[in-house]
Amino acid sequence: MSSLRARHPIAVFATAVALLFLYFPILVLVLNSFNASRYGASWEGWSMRWYQLLFSNHSRDIWQSLRLSLVIGVVASVVSMVFGTIAAWALNRYRTRLQQAHFGLIYLPIVAPDILMGISLAIFFVTLNVERNLWAITVAHITFCISYVALAVLARLQDFDGLVVDAARDLGANRWQTIVRVVVPLLAPGILAGGLLAFTLSIDDFVITFFVKGVGFDTLPLKIYSMTKHTKEMPVINALSTLLLTFTFASVWWIQRLTRTRSAT
Amino acid sequence: MSEFLVFDGVTKRFGDFVAVREASFAIEKGEIFALLGPSGCGKTTLLRMLAGFIEPDEGRILIEGEDITKLPPERRPVNTVFQSYALFPHLTIRDNIGFGLKMAKRPKSEIDSEVDRMLDLVDLTEHGDKKPDRISGGQKQRVAIARALVNKPRVLLLDEPLAALDLKLRQRLLVELDDIHDEVGITFLYVTHDQTEAMAISDRIAVMQRGTLEQIGTPAEIYEAPVNSFVAAFIGDTNFLRGKVVTATDEEYSQAEIEGVGEIRLFNDRPLKPGEEIALSLRPEKIRIESHAPPTDPGLNAIEGIVEDVIYLGSMTRYWVRVGDQRIAAERQHSRYLLDEKLPSWKDRVWLSWRADDGCVLSDFAVEDTELLSIPPDEEG
Asked: Which chain B residues are Cβ-neighbours of A185 within 8 angstroms?
């Protein structure tokens, strides 16, 4: 049925247009990263020189920014996975007015405009005279990452049978063993999904980081933005973006494969 | 009588609601003890207090003299079979069963052999490596039992263990549960709202209502000599006859005037005084229904009435007979249906008779308990 419907000419056309619309700019970017021309307007033949430049000493700043982004991303998502899960547990377990307020607070960073978050965090750090280094950025990222993890875990908790916690205690597990052996493994898909989401959001956050960061702490998105101001750097950015794209596709494919084999057993 | 497990004045309130009121009773070692009552009667609260999930507001719980009231669940010598099984979905059947031993830090070889033994006991040997979502409801139930029993608890708590299964499977597992009990010899505390289940499996039953223990006794005691109208109506079906004691005949018997029925003979289940208001519980199967008057016998009560409803149930027929302003249910077993004499039918004039000592004089009667009967007496069929 569905395959017949998919072959309908209008459906084929609509799909093609949508895919083209979404992926054509990316395709142009990938092609330009192999373009010998410095200015993407014309094709001057295949070249690997931008990749060579990317991996040369010339582009040390880029790699430093990437490292900074990865450190912030990993720390922010791991911390959010812990606190987001605890928050979700409390939200699911207790139906008090305090928890309603808690839910509102968790939801706020998702709906609030980034610029608002960025300005308020900047004012907060300035007021408290906090040094605006790597950790200031990480704390800023954690504030919004927690919300995404909490919501992902909360969704998982909807099908969670609370009696398994009683069962574990009944069979001799103390509170800690119950958490490690029963609760966390059962919530793991939700926690991991939330953590991955938090990681990607942290890696490509621009606005909040822009307001919070101090001098010399350029994360990758900020670094790329500052590079676009110098047109001669553009092809290097294309090369970097192509590599990031490949990495992203590979990891999505890997995660899907992982979840598929897990559900099959 | 060894007092193995003791509830001593246990009370639990949730806000203004009293879930369990001053429960005091003892369970003997090795017996199957059932807590029976309608939903919300406090039986599950009692079980959860014994398991350690709820702390009582007052009173103590003791196992072999040791006060366990304040112990956390993981340090109590009891294990629970939960109503919805609560198996760990991320672990295999083997790991589910071995969970308790692993928590107790037993060596791996010992865990393996114990798990094998339990898999064999509950007949699931070839399913050991499956996850819980790959086996049937009845098999899950057996895993839940094995997972609890492998820890050799001093008491096994079963919280409505068969409620989620269909009737035939329920009957089969009930027999299996009884076999397992014979094999392991552990004390069972069985919580259920199903009186047939409780009757079938228990050595003794405690009937509960609104947080209070109404009666404790063997299934036969509970059925044949209920203390009040709630127990009489909740366990099986019965007729309630209400009236007044007229004369005390002798040590054992009295005469009573039943409203709309006439004078009948009573067995003194408790001391009765002339003029006292009484309620008699009379089970339908104790009443003989015949087309003509039975021979006179001082031990036998006989009254005349008209058949209002007839329900053929295969093994027996149930009749509702109008006697004055009472509707009385009576049953007739069919050991030889086809060759039997002509059976009474609708609108026939019949005689009902029963031996005076087959009724039971209740010490307490509440009108609302008649609602518990399968067909209340004043409801037109």
From this structure: 90
Instruction: Give residues with Cβ within 8 angstroms of B369, minimum separation 6.
Output: B228, B229, B230, B232, B233, B234
Segments forming the whole domain that contains residue A75: 62-264
A161, B88: Cβ pair inside 8 Å?
no
Of the residues B53, B82, B92, B99, the best mutation for testing chain A's interface (the one with the most A CB atoms within 10 Å of its CB) is: B99
End-to-end CA distance of chain A: 28
Domain termination residue (choose one: B224, B253, B275): B224
**B151 touches A: beta carbon within 8 Å:** yes
- B71 and B145 inside one domain: yes
Is B105 in the A-facing interface, judged by CB distances under 8 Å?
no
Residues B104 and B211 in one domain: yes
| A to B CB pairs, distance under 8 Å | 62
Interchain pair B151, A172: CB under 8 A:
yes
Q: How many domains does chain A have?
A: 2
CATH number, residue B252: 2.40.50.100
Which of B332, B361, B184 is closest to B271 using CA atoms? B361
Residue of B nearest to A182 (CA): B88
**Tens-place pLDDT, residues A72-87:** 999 999 999 999 999 9
Tell the burial category of B337 from Cβ atoms under 10 Å away from its Cβ (0-12, 13-18, 19+): middle
Q: HEC profile for A8-69? A: CHHHHHHHHHHHHHHHHHHHHHHHHCCECCCCCCCCCCECCHHHHHHCCHHHHHHHHHHHHH
Of A200, A186, A202, nearest to A89 (Cα)?
Answer: A186
Do B238 and B199 lie in a common domain?
no
A51-72 pLDDT per residue, tens: 888 888 888 888 899 999 999 9
Mean pLDDT confidence for A15-30: 91
Say if the Cβ atoms of B88 and A182 lie within 8 Å. yes
State ipTM.
0.80
CA distance B250 to chain A (A): 56
Q: Is residue B239 part of a domain?
A: yes
How much is the pTM? 0.80
Q: Which among B72, B82, B104 has the least Cβ separation from residue A167?
A: B82
CA B197 to centroid of chain Cα atoms? 7
**B108 part of a folded domain:** yes
Q: Would you list which residues of chain A are within 8 Å, Cβ to Cβ, of chain B?
A: 161, 163-164, 166-174, 177, 181-182, 185-186, 265
